[in-house]
Design a protein that fits this description.
The structure holds two protein chains of two kinds.
Chain A (H helix, E strand, L loop, with lengths): L5 E6 L3 H12 L4 E7 L2 H11 L3 E5 L7 H11 L4 E6 L4 H10 L3 E4 L4 H12 L7 H25 L5 H11 L4 H8 L3 H15 L4 H10 L7
Parallel strand pairs in A: 1-2, 1-3, 3-4, 4-5
Chain B lengths: L3 E7 L2 H12 L4 E6 L5 H8 L4 E5 L6 H11 L4 E5 L5 E6 L5 E4 L3 H9 L4
Parallel strand pairs in B: 1-2, 1-3, 3-4
Antiparallel strand pairs in B: 4-5, 5-6
The chains are: A alpha/beta, B alpha/beta.
Chain lengths: ~220, ~120
């Protein structure tokens, strides 16, 4: 009789792998396999009735695949920790599993010991992943960071009201001296504003600044 | 009781460990070797007497040819190849037509390994 054990449900359509995992996990004191299912629908039914601590779900199953099962579980039973068993380290697939609510992703190319460490980690509300999965995730995060940074000038750079006035007057074709006279500021101050605008928007000249403002409807309508 | 010598070339690693564990739990079987690439079986079998081989190829390319080569060199050998998702096991034996078992369980696999060997 096991004192305190992590209750696990395993779902995989590969009977040999399923039976083998049950046999190996059951030998360990800290775990009890409370149920197994050969498909997605069966897994959901079982997990809903047994409420295990951890669900090991194969990514590719008949009926509902691992991703669909994870989404449903995350919505209906967020307390159940889901670990996806994946065949290959497709970064997009791993990201999709995380977005669906999976707390772990173990490649079938990983060792049994690694699987066990992952189960223990997710049970403790931690994350444990293989260097291969970590590499895929870091690579994807780097790509996303670059994408976000590229969007910053478009979405989040804010021009001050004075800078917007300057850019509008540039768009009207005024030289710096005339802009200064219109706004009651020194020509040098106008130059400073233009310098700041170009710096903020990472542009090279006043014509690019006008084009930028026009594309984003920042110019006053006359 | 005769001990059945089993060799593996199975991937992915988790499945390989599961097979290893399954064979080691049987009193009449033992694991005599394991290789990553099925091609390596040709050289491994020249050194190690083996009754049964279990192959789970990541890609099926070339595996049937390896089986022919192995059976030519070791006519008493039995080769089981499993599809990656475990939906079927194919059995190759010298002089016999390839047979197939759908949705194999542990017991079915063990029965196939034992049949005709002991």
């Amino acid at each position: 009789m096991k004192d305190i054990s992590i209750r696990i449900v395993i779902a995989d359509d590969n009977s040999l792998l399923l039976e083998g995992l049950v046999a190996m996990i059951e030998k360990l004191d800290e775990f009890t396999v409370v149920g197994t299912a050969p498909n997605g629908d069966g897994a959901l039914e079982l997990i809903q009735s047994l409420r295990p601590d951890v669900a090991l779900i194969d990514i590719g199953m008949p009926d509902k695949d691992g991703l669909e099962v994870t989404q449903i579980l995350h919505q209906d039973m967020p307390e159940v920790k889901v670990i996806i068993l994946g065949l290959i380290d497709l970064t997009d697939e791993i990201m999709a599993c995380i977005a669906a609510g999976a707390t772990g992703y173990v490649l079938k190319e990983s060792s049994f010991d690694h699987l066990i460490e992952t189960i223990k980690a997710v049970y403790r509300n931690e994350t444990f992943c293989s260097p291969r999965v970590a590499a895929s995730l870091f690579s994807r995060i780097a790509e996303l960071t670059i994408e976000v940074n590229e969007q910053i000038p478009i979405n989040s750079v804010k021009l001050s009201p004075r800078e917007l006035e300057v850019i509008n007057l540039i768009a009207e074709g005024m030289p710096n001296k005339e802009i200064g006279l219109r706004l009651f500021i020194e020509t040098q101050t106008v130059k400073n504003h233009i310098h700041n605008i170009l710096d903020k928007l990472q542009l090279h000249n006043r014509f690019e600044a006008v084009q930028y403002a026009r594309e984003r409807n920042l110019l006053s309508k006359k | 009781m005769q001990t059945i010598n089993v060799m593996f070339s199975s991937r992915p690693k988790l499945l390989s460990e599961v097979f290893h564990n399954l064979i080691e739990r049987q009193p009449d079987m033992r694991v005599v070797g394991e290789v990553v690439d099925p091609i390596e079986l040709i050289f491994a079998l020249r050194k190690t007497p083996t009754d049964v081989i279990i192959i789970t190829p990541m890609k099926a390319n070339g595996v049937p040819r390896v089986c022919s080569q192995l059976l030519k060199e070791h006519p008493r050998l039995k080769i089981l190849t499993l599809t990656l998702e475990g939906e079927a096991v194919y059995i190759y034996q010298s002089g016999l037509k390839r047979s197939c078992i759908q949705k194999p369980t542990e017991q079915m696999l063990l029965d196939v390994i034992r049949k005709g060997v002991q």
